[in-house]
Predict the structure.
Amino acid sequence: MAALVCAVVFGFTSCNKDGVYKPKEKIEKIYVQYEGQDKVLTETWDWEDNLLMSIKHADTDPIGDNSYTETFTYDKKQVKSISDGTYTMTYNYDGRYFDNIKVSEGSDEVGTMKFSHDGKLISKIDITLNDDDFMKSRMAESAMRFIAPEFACDFGKIMQAEAQRGFKGKTEVVVSFEYDGVNVQKAIVSNNTANEEQV
């Protein structure tokens, strides 16, 4: 795994998608293809100069409509918020580095993700959430997508697993990272709902 750097690094990757990452090129569309199926458009990215303004997620549900759009706001060139119309994630910084992400639904704050770091590397994320629906949503994955893209899919799965436990009230999850040099060797997850660690 690559290093989890506290500064904003737009890795622009997501779960199990093939392709070549070329940092000098802007992503326009992301397609997914499962074995034995046709390639399907899942995301369309809209840019304004070098800033990503929105990601439109296509409908991939054969029964209902699960399409939605994430919109981005900035403070200069730093991401300030990402919103899907229901949830807003507000990114707060300590200088150049991430300090925390506040999650809100309308005017209600429903969670916080607090980052600790050792130098430039993220060492721990303390997560407190009061909203099972957010944990089930794809926005949970998006929270990590542009901070730690190689961990985003796992983070989404962790949040969904927490929501599945049916624990009512506050959910607390701690993700600690162990490094081999600057590369993540493992992510250790502990929570207040099951007293267990996932490695």
